Amino acid sequence: MLAAFGQGNNRLIGKWQADTAEVTSMYRDSYQFFSDGKFAFKPNEYDGLNPIISINGNYKIVKDTVYLKPLSMKEIIGGHLIRSKSTTLSDIWEIDGGEERTRTLIKNPKQSAIIKIQPDGKVFILDNHKFFKVGSISK
Q1: 19-64 pLDDT, tens per residue?
Q2: What pLDDT score was predicted for residue 138?
Q3: 12 pLDDT exceeds 60?
Q4: Which string of DSSP letters, residue by residue, matches 44-93?
Q5: 37-65: string of b/e by CB count within 10 Å (b at 16+)?
Q6: Can you tell me the mean pLDDT for 101-125?
Q7: H/E stretch holding 132
Q8: In a domain, 60, yes or no
Q9: Counting beta carbons within 10 angstroms of the beta carbon of residue 131, is it exposed (0 to 12), middle (13 to 18) or buried (19 or more)?
Q10: Could you tell me which of 122, 139, 138, 128 has the C-alpha nearest to residue 12?
Q11: What 3-state class would DSSP assign to 106?
Q12: pTM to 2 decimals?
């Protein structure tokens, strides 16, 4: 059973990456969970056409369920399309330039998902998606 954040023994605290523990020059979908009850989700960095940089908010764990409440989103506004010099999921197209902006989400419904952390603490499963621990957080 998992403890709620703030109790000091939350094994979810850290950086987690989807599908693999191997870290390359870019991350796949990833979560960061902090001891103060905040989280950040970053979409797959290999998708050069995704204007969303991160979704940030609060989380709480109750038994086998994690509750996520998005509060803000960082995204790229504007820019132009170029052929990427690195391989992306989008046939090497990417957004170049543009302005990074953070906007507060007005409608931010709480989302929930079933979560299971493996006994070794190196993998968690969130609604049938595997995430591997790839880093610690000192916050």
Answers
A1: 998 888 888 999 999 999 999 999 998 888 889 999 999 999 988 8
A2: 66
A3: yes
A4: -TT-TT--EEEEEEEEEEETTEEEEEEEEEEEEES-EEEE-SS--TTTTE
A5: bebbbbbbbbbbebbebbbbbbbebeeee
A6: 89
A7: strand 129-135
A8: yes
A9: buried
A10: 122
A11: coil
A12: 0.85
Domain that holds residue 74: 14-135
| Residue 40, CA distances (Å) to 11, 15, 24, 83 in order | 16, 9, 20, 29
Q: Flag whether 41 is in a domain.
A: yes
**For residues 85-103, average pLDDT:** 81
Give CA–CA dist 53/89, Å, rounded.
Answer: 15
Give per-residue pLDDT as tens, 63-93: 888 999 999 999 999 999 998 877 655 567 8
Instruction: Report the alpha-carbon distance of residue 78 to residue 81 in Å, rounded.
Output: 10
CA distances from 83 to 77, 89, 125 (A): 18, 12, 35
Whether 7 is covered by a domain: the verdict is no
As a whole number of angstroms, the distance between CA 125 and CA 120 comes to 13
Q: Within a domain: residue 86?
A: yes
| 3 state DSSP class of 20 | coil
Q: What is the pLDDT of residue 139?
A: 53
Total domains, the chain: 1
